[in-house]
Amino acid sequence: MPIITIEGPCLSTDQKRQLVRDLTKAARAVIPLPAEAFTVLIKENSHDNVGVGGELLADKIPN
């Protein structure tokens, strides 16, 4: 069944809960399957694990 993968910054549990709910709802609007058919994978990347333009994101974005 459909797997939705999203990569981004670290989120709180409440933010993850909302993200999973909203992504599932959006996917169901296009793919007529029950919510239980969808799997959402959240991959968190802290700013010190991401490089943009040859620099760590941690060096570009203040905490």
UniProtKB/TrEMBL annotation:
Family matches, as Pfam families: Tautomerase (PF01361)
Domain (4-oxalocrotonate tautomerase-like): give its ranges. Answer: 2-59
Q: Which Gene3D superfamilies match?
A: Macrophage Migration Inhibitory Factor
Is Zinc-finger there in the keyword field? Answer: no
Q: Keywords in UniProt for this one?
A: Isomerase
Q: Which GO terms describe its molecular function?
A: isomerase activity
Q: What is this protein called?
A: 4-oxalocrotonate tautomerase
Identify the taxonomic lineage of the organism of origin.
Bacteria, Bacillati, Bacillota, Negativicutes, Selenomonadales
